[in-house]
């Protein structure tokens, strides 16, 4: 497990160093990373931990762990914490709440050497993560995502000039964006001109900045339980915290081809280009079976 960690970290470093321009996004120092860009980094000062959470990559369960670590021992079972509670703003301490001089930065004035903390993140196959985000936000009744995203997607790409006003009306009539509508929305250059991608489908490296922050541990959703147990052992918390089990209905890598059948080849290739950085940085295989004609 330790060898695997070293390989993952080495790969990320090599990709970052080999293609600085692609991954720096014009950000070369601490000053360049805004508070907004640091808002996915949760700090536990007591245990010296920084966790960068990525939506649709076990982030609810890791937030539960960070939440119980804030309490005194013996720690509560993370599963006793409601999923809704851990997503309430200001329930967890974020790195961007620290004054800049207190961020323990390296002499190079970047965030790669927050040496006093163990910094960790968990990643997932980028296309599987997109499918998971689509299922969660558009195939379930969700007032916020219907109002702010689904209605526009239906109007612009779903051939519905006047979609139902409310999510309840939409669900009663069986109306929701198709997976291909969602992909069209992601590929439309105007989408990001209006505002940055919503975090559930924003590229993972744009949430956690692995080319600016040197992570000590990079876990994978595909080996979640083993990686979680390994990390808790490293932190000497294996006897105090039990990482919650994964649930059955998780989007599996094996179903990717089925989801992409309705997406034309050219658009699959464009989508890969859009998320190529995540594939490369985190060692995910290029899905040639989707991209070759």
TrEMBL record:
The keyword Phosphoprotein does not apply. It is found in: Golgi apparatus membrane. Its EC number is 2.8.2.-. One of its GO terms (cellular component) is Golgi membrane. GO terms for molecular function: sulfotransferase activity. Keywords: Carbohydrate metabolism, Glycoprotein, Golgi apparatus, Membrane, Signal-anchor, Transferase, Transmembrane, Transmembrane helix. It is a single-pass type II membrane protein. It is an enzyme of class 2 (transferase). This is Carbohydrate sulfotransferase.
